[in-house]
Amino acid sequence: MNFIRLKTLVSSHLHTILLLLGMMFIVAAVQILTNIGYTLLTSGIFIIIIALLIERGVAK
User: Fold this and answer.
1) Which of 13, 43, 45, 57 has the most CB within a 10 Å radius?
2) For residue 43, with 0-12 CB atoms within 10 Å meaning exposed, 13-18 middle and 19 or more buried, which class applies?
3) SS3 call for 55
4) Phi, psi of 51 (to 5 degrees)
5) How far apart are CA 33 and CA 27, in angstroms?
6) Which residues of 9-33 are buried (b: 16+ CB within 10 A; e: fewer)?
7) What is the pLDDT of residues 6-51, one digit of tens each?
8) Would you list the DSSP string of 6-28?
9) What is the reported pLDDT for 1?
10) CA distances from 39 to 8, 17, 26 (A)
11) What is the distance between the alpha carbons of residues 31 and 18, in angstroms, rounded to a whole number?
């Protein structure tokens, strides 16, 4: 029974999970290729993007 609820939750929020995973991979790649300053900048930009997406989703 719990597996069906988990499957429903994951399938309804699949785009959000993929977005967060993609952002985590991009931040990790920036950290590997550059220094910590650019990593923090990238993380900040992604947090702003997520906040805007949440704002847009709440407004509708």
Assistant:
1) 43
2) middle
3) helix
4) -60, -40
5) 10
6) eeeeeeeeeeeeeebeeebeebeee
7) 777 777 777 777 778 888 888 888 888 888 888 888 888 888 888 7
8) HHHHHHHTHHHHHHHHHHHHHHH
9) 56
10) 34, 21, 9
11) 20
